[in-house]
């Protein structure tokens, strides 16, 4: 009999084309996990995630749900997956979930962290997980700009998909920006994020930090609703999904 399972997954997204299946490649997180589950159960599963990460983006606690027909215990499923998955994908936990649990539809919020490196030397050991900047941006200016982004807004200017048919309204209830040693860390929490939204927000805030635009211009971007006027999309390597909230 099939049961519904909730999985917590960590991965280094450096060499993958994101979470979701892509044509002509098996280098996706979803594809790797589903292939191991196919080997384990003899049936191709349909694994659902809390939100698709893009190519090169990392995750510490991606949540997924999947129905499996297996006699293995939760711990045995976890051990089997970790035995056969590549070393840059790890299953943190496997738990039986309610029949109606769905990793995406039941998600209530997400926390993303974007990390920049501002040290004098090269970030040799962190290079796959940070965006190396030539100098340190003005933290105060960026915090001032971030205040305009808090709340429920139409974030169309910060969406990479110009043909977005669904609503681009989202609620961002926290943007924390702080410098810690040689790193500038942006932490975002909201009820959901559009394609490349966190990376575009970061690129725009960095423009403010490097005095390329005024803090109040961010408010204008919300009103314009045009991606062309926002900042560059920050590189994928600096972004990590930290946590997914469920009620």
Can you lay out the helices and strands and say which pair or pack?
Blueprint: E1 3-11, H1 29-41, E2 48-49, E3 58-68, H2 74-84, E4 89-96, E5 107-117, E6 131-132, H3 139-147, E7 151-154, E8 169-180, E9 183-190, H4 197-209, H5 217-224, E10 239-246
Helix pairs in contact: 3-4
Describe the fold and architecture:
With 247 residues, this protein is of the alpha+beta class. It has two domains: 3-96, Pseudouridine synthase I, catalytic domain, N-terminal subdomain (Alpha-Beta Plaits); 108-246, 2-Layer Sandwich (Alpha-Beta Plaits). The protein has helices spanning 29-41, 74-84, 139-147, 197-209, 217-224; strands at 3-11, 48-49, 58-68, 89-96, 107-117, 131-132, 151-154, 169-180, 183-190, 239-246. α3 (139-147) crosses α4 (197-209). The longest helix has 13 residues, at 29-41.
């Amino acid at each position: 009999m099939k049961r519904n399972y909730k999985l917590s997954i960590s991965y280094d997204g450096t060499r993958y084309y994101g979470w979701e299946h892509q044509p002509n490649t098996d280098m996706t997180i979803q594809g790797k996990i589903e292939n191991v589950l196919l080997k384990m159960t003899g049936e191709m599963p349909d694994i659902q995630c809390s939100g698709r990460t893009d190519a090169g983006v990392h995750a510490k606690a991606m949540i997924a749900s999947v129905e499996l027909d297996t006699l293995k215990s939760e711990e045995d499923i976890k051990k089997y997956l970790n035995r056969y998955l590549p070393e840059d994908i790890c299953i943190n936990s496997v738990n039986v979930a309610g029949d109606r649990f769905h990793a995406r539809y039941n998600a209530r919020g997400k926390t993303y962290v974007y990390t920049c490196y501002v040290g004098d030397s090269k970030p040799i050991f962190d290079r796959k997980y940070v965006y190396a900047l030539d100098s340190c941006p003005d933290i105060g200016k960026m915090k001032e700009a971030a205040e305009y982004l808090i709340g429920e807004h139409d974030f169309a200017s910060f969406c990479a998909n110009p043909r977005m048919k669904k609503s681009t309204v989202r609620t961002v209830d926290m943007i924390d920006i702080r410098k810690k040693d040689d790193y500038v860390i942006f932490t975002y929490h909201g009820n959901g994020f559009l394609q490349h939204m966190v990376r575009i927000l970061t690129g725009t805030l960095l423009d403010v930090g490097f005095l390329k635009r005024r803090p109040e211009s961010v408010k204008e971007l919300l009103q314009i609703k045009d991606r062309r006027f926002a900042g560059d999309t920050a590189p994928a390597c600096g972004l990590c999904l930290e946590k997914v909230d469920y009620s």
